[in-house]
Structure formats: structure tokens, C-alpha cells
TrEMBL record:
Polar residues composition-biased segments: 53-67
Region feature Disordered, mapped onto this chain: 53-79
Domain spans labelled Type VII secretion system protein EssD-like: 118-241
Gene3D superfamilies linked to this entry: Extracellular Endonuclease, subunit A
Organism: Lacticaseibacillus paracasei subsp. paracasei 8700:2
Name of the protein: DNA-entry nuclease
Amino acid sequence: MNNLITFSLILAGMLLLLLRKGTKRQRRANRRLATTLLLFGLASGGYTYTQQHTSLLGTPPQSSSVSHKAPATDDTSRQPVTQLAQLNYNNTAEITVNNNEPGFTKAELATDKGPWTTFSNLDSLNRAGTANALLNQAIMPTAKREPLTWNPTGWHNKKVHGEWLYNRSHLIGFQLSGENNNPKNLMTGTRQLNSPLMQAHEDDMAHYLKQSRQHFIRYEVTPIFRGDELLPRGVAMRAQSIGENTIHFNVYIFNVQPGVTLNYADGTSQLN
């Protein structure tokens, strides 16, 4: 198209040069032909210009390689700690959280670094925080547990009906990790919270891990405090076996003991 336009304009120019030569009749014919070629060239050039600018300014073609990436997201899932802290015991010692779905992200379920445990630093009130682990046979203890000596916050123990009211409750159980007298892994839990409730889940996980060295469990435990209280209101536990759902839960256990009223501000108590 561009070559035809150029030829038309050159031919029109040549004819215009011939307007001064030839008879009067020939000059009129050359003028009409030159005008026609000139108009054709201008019209064609305008068409080409319009086409070019429509492709630049109009809608991009459907085959455009422009992609819309989702914004980066945090690879860490979180428990509803604030909401759990506001719950009051209503005669059900253990409830499910998030429809019992652990909710770990794909990144949190990775096993490429092998088994591990991590613990939060004690806060300004000396309280333990969230503990996380990727459990496997490799970190399960082979020696007997030694006596505990650390007193976690809210520790005002006494005997009730011949049994101790409180236990030094491990967040990541000793039988799962070998963690024992670690202040970052201990909270004050009632006898009921520690055993049978927490221990029932720990026993299930220990049984699963012992079946194969290839078994892994992603595990998280969070003591739940309300405000500046020193005795936890409860404990949130969630776990997921890697690759299948033999171990699969997300629960909240209230830190209560039948027949006893607890003062969560400091851990003192009285019989009902």
C-alpha cells in the first residue's frame, strides 16, 4: 500500500510538470489526471495513518502477554487467639476451632528441612507463647523424663480431693519432642486439661509417629491468656499429618477443673 501511494504522488508530480507543455487540451487532461492521483495518494495516506494509530491507542490484542499476578501473601496461618481468649467455659471442656480444620499453609507443611521445634520468647509477664513443631521419630526421646523444676506463671498449686490441682503442662509434649524443663514450653494447666485432654491428642500423635520413620506431623500449641492474666484460659492445639489425614484436628481446651473456681488473674483457686 505504501509503495502504491508513493508511485501515485510521483506520477502526479510529473504530470504537473507537463502542464506547461502540450496543447491546451492535453494540459487540461494532464491536470485532471494529476488531481485524481494526488487525491488518491492523500486519501490512502490518511487511511494508513488512521490504521496505525488505532492499533497503538486502541484495545490491546487478545494475545497480549500482560499477566495479573496475585499480590504476595503471608505464608503463615494464624489461630483466632483474640476470639478464643474471650470465650467462657460452658460445660464443654473441649471444642473445635475452624470446623476442626488445622488450616496450615503449604509452606508450613514443608518437610525439606527435617523435623524441628521452635518456641516463642517469654513475654513481659514471663508467660509462654506459641510453640511450633514438625514432629518425627527422629526427635522423640529415648531417655526417661527428669523432674520438672520451672514454675510457669499462675503457679499456685494445691491438692484437691487428694490430687494436685495443677500440672506443669508441656506445650509440645515430652513424648513427642524430648523437650522437658524448658520455660518456653511450659504453662500452668489443670489436671483435667493436661491429662486426659491434651494427653489424648499427644498419645494419638505418638502412636502415629512410631509406625514409620517417614511419618511427619505439623503441630502448633498456643496458651490462651486474657489480657494480663497469668493463668491461661485454655490452650489451642492443631495438628496435621503430612500427606494424609490420620492426624487432623484443631481444638481449644478450656483450662478448668470440676469443683474448683479458678482466679485467672494470678492462678489462685477455691473449692466450689
